[in-house]
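Minutes, project check-in

Agenda point 3 was the complex the collaborators sent over. CS summarized: two entities, 782 residues total, and the question is how they sit relative to each other. Sequences were read into the notes so everyone works from the same version.
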Amino acid sequence: MIPKGFLFSTVEAAIKKPGRKDLALIYSQVEANIAGTFTTNNVKAAPVKLDIKKIKSGRAQAIIVNSGNANACTGKKGMEDAIEMTKLVADGLKIKSSLVYVCSTGVIGAPIPMERIRPKISELIGNLSMSTVEDVASVIMTTDTFPKIVQKNVKIGSKTGSVVGICKGAGMICPHMATMLCFIISDIAIHQKTLSKTLNIAVKKTFNRITVDGDMSTNDTVLVMANGMLGNRQITEESKSYTAFKNALYEVILDLSRLIVKDGEGATKFIEIEVKGARNEADAEKAALSVANSNLVKTAMYGNDANWGRIMAALGYSGVEMKEEKIDIYFGKVRIVNRGISTGRDREADVVLKRRDIKITIDLHRGKSSANVLTCDLTEDYIRANAAYRT
Amino acid sequence: MIPKGFLFSTVEAAIKKPGRKDLALIYSQVEANIAGTFTTNNVKAAPVKLDIKKIKSGRAQAIIVNSGNANACTGKKGMEDAIEMTKLVADGLKIKSSLVYVCSTGVIGAPIPMERIRPKISELIGNLSMSTVEDVASVIMTTDTFPKIVQKNVKIGSKTGSVVGICKGAGMICPHMATMLCFIISDIAIHQKTLSKTLNIAVKKTFNRITVDGDMSTNDTVLVMANGMLGNRQITEESKSYTAFKNALYEVILDLSRLIVKDGEGATKFIEIEVKGARNEADAEKAALSVANSNLVKTAMYGNDANWGRIMAALGYSGVEMKEEKIDIYFGKVRIVNRGISTGRDREADVVLKRRDIKITIDLHRGKSSANVLTCDLTEDYIRANAAYRT
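CS then shared the predicted structure for the full assembly.
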């Protein structure tokens, strides 16, 4: 169920190779509240810098997004181009340009071909329709192997609102920077501050806890627009229906983040790493990310090898205080390490590791906090995809 | 030229597969000063923990080292075994066990087979000779493809001293944890505090600035023994000959660290990353390591791809303050990025990238400090080597 009042459009602007649509528009028929999170990379693409400024208003009505060019490391010209993209859309839609956001993904360091985008704007706006959100999900794909869409309903009194999220994952383009772009739309009325806070909490435990190769993009952007067209009383943190909205938004984002990992470059396995028994959540997350980003752990998983020594070493260099002799490690339900020592259950662990979905649980026995991080294995296909020369 | 007073020995103790020597002894005929640096991994192998205690005395006469088993994550038993190894050698050599150090590399988490080591100690001691330092370098190899030995002479007045270093590199065993072990011996008389300080300075700029896969071992150890048998007056930092010794030690360690990177798992390219124009050396090192550890940069180098956007992104997430619009990037002498913007010299850069030795220079234009980090490319062979099941 598509949230009320949202329209979508896609066109081919020849930014990518011919035959692939590469420009999309998400439009709300009324002004919406908006919240966002952005890459923390010091090097930010022009559209990211621009959106960070715009989002201070908390208001939005349209998002234009292109693939094929990241408009990153493009200097003053890049910023002028990003601004022009929002102005072209604003003029076409006859709305204020402050309400238009822009996102780009693709090649870094090449100027964005405005001469090919400009003449396509009227077609982009003319094509707006209710039924093409899947097309937008396809346009933003780079080396993703499938479009990523998640939808959840939210009961608010007698009404049913909708939250739809689309995203592109950690694939390379041309084969350039992995960029994560995510757009979430909802017809539910929710206070902007509440929306922003809810988004930040959800992203912290989802998108910020997935890793394919440990490389952070210059373009990562998550935007959520809520236009209130459901007609419910505006939700705040005190509202009865807040929990339902919060859960729906969290689930949409969690599902999308799982889809990104499942579609990781060259991945053959989906790996969930839970660190529990940590002194605090920050420690748990740090330890789990250290294991998830270890090339040695990821190649062992690819090779179905119950190589827990590599997990122990990655925990050891994570910077988190721990005692080796307290640590338990499980592959699935098989305890492979008991209080720092091998249990010798390698053969049982091997059975678990042959699955496509693997859960690794690490108990530090230092406290009561935990964190889950999602990752994938590291394979020859990752190398091939990323060593191929740009074409 | 082997330093005076040092003897070496190797035997096969069946810790590894049959037919490969796996136990070695380095012995000084007189007590020597010793200094060392060890892994900063929170999870440390038993021999590392033991040596850290012993080295407080600053004195040593022998080092026993085995490959095939890391004696890491082996609990109390592991520590008892490490202690027993030093005692067996001490008894055989009729020296104090406090003067005997032990290093291990190989499988993590499996008990070290003392029943196979014990009966070999007398043969190990019986075999001691002057000419077999190369054999020791071979014994400590794991997936290294060549033994690593470097020798430098040091003129001290009318005498000529010698510094010899051997090491094993970042190869996996069985295919387990990469461990870096390095043993340096010299016949030069040098004050223990001076030796220790000189070693620390050298390691900081050499071994601590190489990276193959970003994974830090539980067993990394560097030991330097100086037995004074050259008969020179003991060197301190004030001595005229201190600079010559310091330079020789630094060069031995630098050369060894280069050999480790050249022999990195699956590597086809040797990559030197220099970050200059940093506000301080710590910033320069951090930025260079961020680039050197980026899987995307390493695969691009493998693919001969002048993909500077990945370098820019890795700089951006390094945590070092920088301004994108000030950054210059060079491949060899080709400036590919000028003040944050592409120069378009991709074709010239491609020529540089086809070489086996590649220098990447990054100028942050923020200050006057610099740091050089050595790394290698990331290839399918790395994945294959590390995904292969333990045998």
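Noted in discussion: Residues 242-262 of chain A form the longest helix (21 residues).
Follow-up: revisit at the next meeting once the mutant set is ready.
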